[in-house]
Amino acid sequence: MNHPNLPPAAFPVACVVRHGQTAHAGAHSHACGQLIYPQLGGVLLETVNSLIRLAPDRAAWIPEGVSHGIAIDRSFRYYSLYISRDLLRRDETCVLPVRPLMRELILDASQWASESSDVATAKALVLVDEIQRAQSIDSAIRIPDDPRIENICRTLEQNPGSAKTIDDWADEAGVSSKTLQRYFVSATGMSFQQWRNRVRMAKAVELHAAGLRIIDVAMTVGYSTEGAYAQAFRKFYGYPPSRLRLDGASITRPRPQP
Fold this sequence. Notes:
By secondary structure, the chain is an alpha+beta fold. The chain has helices spanning 100-108, 117-133, 150-158, 166-173, 177-188, 192-209, 214-220, 226-237; strands at residues 13-20, 23-28, 33-40, 43-47, 51-54, 58-62, 68-72, 76-83, 94-97, 246-247, 250-251. One of its GO terms (molecular function) is sequence-specific DNA binding.
């Protein structure tokens, strides 16, 4: 593909690596595009109309001028790459799958300032190609293509509040629960319970954004009490749902700790 000429005055990619136990950044924007990638832990990213959980298998691209905030309540290490619009123009906020090459380039970007201009430029152009070619993905859970569990996953995605246990699903499939558990781990890298929990938590964020009460969200995603749901939500996101201030259909940044 054709690339624009790189500005001669300054290298068009800056990398900042942040790490710690907690981090909070209120609504802000940048004069250039930003790629956020959590190498360790998770990042709760908020834009005007969405709340997105980033994990080490995905990154978020935020165009210049787009307001966003970040909240992290657990150990983390994440990379922020600030990329000049002269080098990369992608105008929609999106979540991108992080393939091995993109991941290695992101992690290497913190060293580019000490490398020769030619080497750093070559790497930057490859990274830009990776970002531009990457297909944006829904922040919700993706369905694995393993036919042995695909129907189960689709059913759970449509009805995350289903009370069926892995034993119930195993009986329907005519296999043992241990065998079904192995299928899940092989196809998703997660146990059945972990995969179902991710589906429930993704749905929960969607319901909170729609303005539902906490108890209604809890019942919809399979919890019999608000307390049990709040505990699960906090364990997954690092925040209890009560810290999300609802404003119509949007979730604004979490309330500060007292």
